[in-house]
């Protein structure tokens, strides 16, 4: 099967002539699988996610999406691919404090061309599913950190993206909240998406379908 997302001899350095942070990585990230990226602090886990998500351009090699060299596309085309097909969950929820929970979740639809009514319905369904349905009219300052992270998860899954990136998505959470976020990401993978999660949590990494270990 064609991989949705593939790193091919991927190298990335933040500055010309600096030692590469990613050095010749080749890996096909299988659809239907949750792949964890692990490795010591500073080994390049976040950097790899940003390169795979087309936010940073490789120094050499390719990031292929659906068998095209997506990393070589112009900025606008890369941004369109990201907005249309990818979701993100970071260690901190990064919600807009001025907008309600519902509007924060619906934001993802704006850039993906999802009709407003569908977005609202799906946002409410996700908020209910992840236990923040009673908070949709509140602002981020009025909910807990664990709830905020579940809101970020709802936002990431809103458009049913084919690729989801998580950068330490459970890093700030207690065990129960971490489990909810992890299980949701795994379920999204089982539904066919390609899910790539950077984590320090070896116990969660042991449960992943595939692993990329950086050194
Ligand atoms: N914007 C940047 N400019 C220059 N160097 C950077 C930049 N961001 C990260 N680095 C360097 O790149 C290397 C990899 O950083 P990265 O954040 O990807 O690692 P990580 O494995 O995610 O680390 P951690 O587990 O601590 O979050 C580190 O040496 C870091 O100092």
From TrEMBL:
Domain ABC transporter: 5-215
Molecular-function GO terms, alphabetical: ATP binding
Pfam family, one: ABC_tran
Alphabetically ordered keywords of this record: ATP-binding, Nucleotide-binding, Transport
Protein family according to the UniProt entry: Belongs to the ABC transporter superfamily.
Name of the protein in question: ABC transporter ATP-binding protein
Lineage of the species this protein comes from: Bacteria, Bacillati, Actinomycetota, Actinomycetes, Micrococcales
């Amino acid at each position: 099967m064609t991989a949705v997302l593939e790193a091919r001899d991927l190298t990335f350095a933040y500055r010309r002539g600096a030692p590469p942070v990613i050095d010749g990585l080749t890996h096909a990230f299988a659809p239907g699988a949750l792949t964890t990226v692990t490795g010591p602090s500073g080994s390049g886990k976040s950097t790899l996610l940003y390169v795979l998500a087309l936010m940073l351009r490789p120094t050499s090699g390719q990031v292929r999406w659906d068998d095209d060299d997506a990393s070589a596309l112009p900025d606008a085309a890369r941004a369109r691919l990201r907005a249309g097909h990818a979701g993100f969950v970071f260690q901190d929820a990064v919600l807009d404090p001025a907008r309600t929970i519902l509007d924060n979740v619906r934001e993802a639809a704006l850039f993906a061309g999802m009709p407003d009514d569908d977005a609202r319905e799906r946002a409410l369904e996700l908020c209910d599913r992840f236990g923040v349905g009673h908070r949709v009219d509140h602002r981020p300052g009025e909910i807990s950190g664990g709830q905020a992270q579940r809101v970020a998860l709802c936002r990431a899954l809103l458009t049913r993206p084919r690729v989801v990136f998580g950068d330490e998505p459970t890093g700030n959470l207690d065990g129960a909240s971490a489990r909810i976020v992890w299980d949701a990401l795994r379920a999204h993978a089982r539904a066919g998406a390609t899910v790539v999660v950077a984590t320090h949590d070896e116990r969660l990494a042991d449960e992943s379908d595939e692993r990329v270990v950086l050194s």
